[in-house]
């Protein structure tokens, strides 16, 4: 049972709306002023409230790891990410209390003014590709063939790890590479640094 | 009234899609709720508005003609 107040509220709005509509459909009253007001709530106010809270809950749900892992090709990534014994970059971020269950989104989202919109559009692209190309792909094949579309941006890491912190700069590898990290010519998630992020990580499409 | 009954049934369908997305937050239900669910709900509300406005106009005309 959902415990999120937003989801519970949305379900209550939907339930109340359904009760009013069923009353109308079953008893078929005359179209009096009272009936119109009841239906204004049943067809208008309460469903709009359901949609508003439901949309917000839906957008929040798209950040959850189980949402990302619900397409079978992403299952191994989500499983590793939630594995308390795993030492991959994704799993270590999954254990971070700041965003634990939302670690896929935290690392793969675009940031900036239109970051959320870009991220959601990218998500729609993923769904389209899944439905048209990868829905019936065996997991073993998907694990070998699915690549990240574009190289992972260091800017995403620097959203939290600003590279300004003295502790960060005290690491000699960081200090020697700080300019190349900032301009993106050395990836934080490269092998030998902090990557690969997942056990099945591969080079992005088109990368040398 | 038929349009109003249709509107009520459409609202129930839209609500069902929205509730499905809340209980099973996976890509298909969430996308269906945010697209088809809301389109159906909007159409239902528009139909309700049309019926109510038409009924109010009918009453207003009847009052005007009786004067």
Characteristics of this structure?
A: 208 residues; mainly alpha; 0% strand; elongated; B: 67 residues; 93% helix; rod-shaped
3D architecture notes:
The complex is a heterodimer of chains A (208) and B (67). Chain A is mainly α. Chain A has 11 helices and no strands. In chain A, helix 1 packs antiparallel against helix 2. Chain B has one domain (2-66). Chain B is rod-shaped, with a radius of gyration of 17 Å.
Nearest-integer average pLDDT of chain A: 89
Please estimate the helix content of chain A. Answer: 55-70%
Helix- and strand-based class of chain A?
A: mainly alpha
In total, the number of strands of chain A is 0
Task: Count the domains of chain B.
Answer: 1
Looking at the chains present, what oligomeric state does this protein adopt?
heterodimer
Strand content of chain B: under 5%
Structural category of chain B: mainly alpha
Per DSSP, what share of the residues of chain A sits in E-state strands of 2 or more residues? under 5%
What is the string of helix and strand elements of chain B? HH
Largest sheet of chain B: none
Which regions of chain B have little confidence, pLDDT < 50, spanning 5+ residues?
none
- Tell me the radius of gyration of chain A: 23 Å
Q: Based on DSSP secondary structure assignment, what is the total number of beta strands of chain B?
A: 0
- How widely separated are the two ends of chain B? 27 Å
Note the overall shape of chain A. Answer: elongated
Order of helices and strands of chain A: HHHHHHHHHHH
Radius of gyration of chain B: 17 Å
């Amino acid at each position: 049972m959902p415990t999120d107040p937003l989801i519970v509220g949305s379900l209550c709005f939907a339930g109340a709306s359904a009760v009013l509509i069923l009353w109308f459909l079953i008893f078929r009253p005359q179209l009096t002023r009272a009936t119109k007001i009841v239906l204004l709530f049943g067809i208008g106010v309460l469903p709009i409230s359901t949609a508003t809270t439901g949309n917000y809950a839906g957008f929040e749900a798209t950040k959850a790891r189980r949402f990302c892992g619900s397409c079978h090709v992403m299952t191994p990534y989500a499983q590793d990410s939630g594995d308390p014994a795993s030492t991959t970059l994704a799993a270590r971020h999954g254990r971070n209390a700041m965003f634990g269950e939302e670690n896929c989104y935290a690392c793969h989202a675009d940031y900036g003014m239109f970051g959320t919109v870009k991220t959601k559009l990218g998500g729609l692209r993923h769904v389209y590709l899944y439905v048209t190309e990868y829905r019936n792909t065996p997991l073993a094949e998907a694990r070998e063939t699915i690549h990240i579309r574009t190289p992972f941006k260091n800017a995403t890491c620097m959203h939290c790890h600003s590279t300004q912190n003295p502790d960060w700069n005290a690491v000699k590898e960081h200090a020697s590479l700080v300019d190349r990290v900032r301009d993106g010519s050395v990836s934080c998630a490269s092998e030998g640094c902090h990557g690969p992020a997942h056990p099945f990580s591969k080079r992005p499409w088109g990368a040398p | 009234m038929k349009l109003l009954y249709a509107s009520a049934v459409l609202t129930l369908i839209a609500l069902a899609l929205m509730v499905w997305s809340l209980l099973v937050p996976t890509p298909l239900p969430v996308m269906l709720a945010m697209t088809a669910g809301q389109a159906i709900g909007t159409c239902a509300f528009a139909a309700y508005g049309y019926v109510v406005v038409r009924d109010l106009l009918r009453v207003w005309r009847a009052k005007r003609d009786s004067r």
